Every structure is written in structure tokens, then in C-alpha cells.
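Record type: monomer structure entry
Structure origin: computed from sequence
Chain ID: A
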Amino acid sequence: MPFSLSHLSAGFMAVLVGYTSSVVIILQAAAAAGADAAQTASWLWALGLGMGLTCIGLSLYYRIPVLTAWSTPGAALLATSLTGVSLGEAIGAFMLSSALMVLLALSGSVDKLLRVLPKPLAAAMLAGVLLRFGINLFAPLPDAPLLILGMLALYLLTKRCVPRLVMVVVLIGGTLLAGWLTPFHLDGVTLSLTEPVWMSPRFSWHALIGVGLPLFVVTMASQNLPGMAVLHAHGYHPKASPLIGWTGLTGLLLAPFGGFAYNLAAITAAICMGKEVDEAPARRWPAAVWAGIFYVMSGLFAASVVSLFAALPPALVAAIAGLALLGTIGSSLHGALVEEPSRESALITFLVTASGISWLGIGSAFWGILLGALVWQWQRRSPPPLCR
């Protein structure tokens, strides 16, 4: 496998952003299911192992950066919908959701849907999904001006001099700068292997319909479709059905250990697909393999990893994520708005997605692409006689 520091740093940052942005939601979902400390650690073990193995396997097979992730909207759904549902019934619902993903992949319907998705709208959706990370880059500025401005200056200087190492330098330099300005302590971080815990599934109609079906819809609409859009926006066009089928099968196998949902990544995937990783798109896939390696390690040492990420200053994490995604946000906006005929529909897609709304348990990425597609179709039609 080709190796460079840019590959390794991109993979590490993808995992860092993934954990720090939503691991708290996973813990809330596990608590809502009634999981104890050992079972909660098993959830993180299963999620890390499943994401790592699928990242490594799919990226090596397709030779493109395929990143998988847990379903963050799915975890948020679980945190609010598992009241009155036993842990065994929750596991059964997880298995139903994953089984439906496998069946959908076998039907080939995902590829048919993606073939009719206009590229400007896909780029607009990606820009809307990533916008908050760009905004969050500057949100801590009043409280940590030296850290944010210092990392921004380091980013701009390194990008001009050694662009392939820009995020390596930002990651190392930003961590050192944060430690100097606002020292953080790692006393509470201990290294210990996590033991998986088998949680036997139980199948009840109210859990399958009330939890399993919504989890499937949310994961497909809010995670897998944006994940494919990210791949397409960066020039990668694998068939969607095998990718989604493998993530669904992984969920079926690891659900009894707490792996509630696996899907294609969008935000973290973009970190491994930019020009900062490698100028040649065909040489960016090792970044996803490194992300998979770090995911496996994070699963094996789940409790230790969570305590480590909790010790990092929030401003540092926000700055790393924002700077890593800056180029992708810019190229996505350009791709969304460069064509005049589709500009209005792309703008609507971008604004709805960036709004962060959640309706009927489904996130803004789905509603953005839906409304944008409706406007796009309307504008392609001939105007009615009264408007001519």
C-alpha cells in the first residue's frame, strides 16, 4: 500500500472528527436502551471494529477512498425512541434495519435512484452538510483567538509551501499550540482492551416497527445517500448496492454486540478525498485504509479512546475539522453553482441542507435534495400557456 504522511493524517483526522462530533450521542442511545457500562463499551467496540473492517476491505477492493461510519441521526433517533424498549428488543430492531439494507442492495434500487440525481444538487447537498464545520472553525475565535488565528496562519503558509503536508503540519502544530495556550491533561486516560458482550436479540412488533423501520429510513436517507453523493462529487462512481449491502451485512453480524447501524460516511469521507491528501484522486484510497486501521484500534480500546477525545480542547477539534474540510466546501459550492440553469435548485438544496432541520425523524440532507430535485424538475418543464 502506498504510504505518505498526508494519508495517515487524513485517516486520523477522519476518525477524530467522527468520534468527537457524535460519540456522546452514541452513549446517550446506549443508556436509553438500558445498557450497562460493559455493554456500552461493547457498543463502541462493535462500531469501531465494523467501521474499520469495512473501510479497509472496501477501499482495498475498489481502490478508492470508501469510508463508513455509524449512523449519527440513527443514534439520535434511538436516544429518543427506545423508552419502554428492552435491550434485547433494541438489538432485534437493529438487525431488522440492517437486513432491510441488505435486501435493498440486492434489489439494485439504490443505483437507479442515484442515476437520476443531478450532479449540481449532489454538490449542493455536500456543501450544506459540511457548512457547519466551516462555520465552527471561527465560532471559538472570541474565546481562543490565538489558537484559531495561529492555526489558520499555519494552514495558509503550509498550503503555499508544502500543500501535501498541510493537514499534518496543522494537526501537529495546532496540538502543540493548544497545549501551550490552554494546557490539557491526560491523567484520566488509561489504556485497556475492551471486551465484547453478547446481547441476545428479541423480536417484538412494536420495536421492529417503532424502532427498526425508522432506523432504516433515517440511515438510508440521511447517511447513505449523502455518502454516495460525496463519492460522486469527488469523481468516484462505484456501484452503490454492493457498498450498502456490505455495510448492512456488517450490521447483521455485529448488532448483537451493539453495532446498531453502519453506513457510508459523508463528512469524514470528505476529509480523505481532498487534494490535500494527494493531487491524484487515484492515490487517495490509502487515507481511508488508515482511517479503518484507526477505527479498529479505537474499537479495541473503546473506553480509552473516548476518554482521550474528551480531554482535547473543543476549539482545537473544531479548528482541525474546519480547516480539513475548507477545500471540499469551496469545491462543492463551485460545483453546485457553476451551471446557471440549475443554480436556483442547487441553492435551495444547499440552504435546506445547511438549515439542519429534522422532520419526521429524517435529517436535512434528505429534505434538501428532495426539494431541490422538485424545483429542478419544475424548471426543466415547459412553462404553462399563461406564462408564455
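Annotation 1: The beta strands are 68-70, 262-264.
Annotation 2: The longest helix spans residues 205-233.
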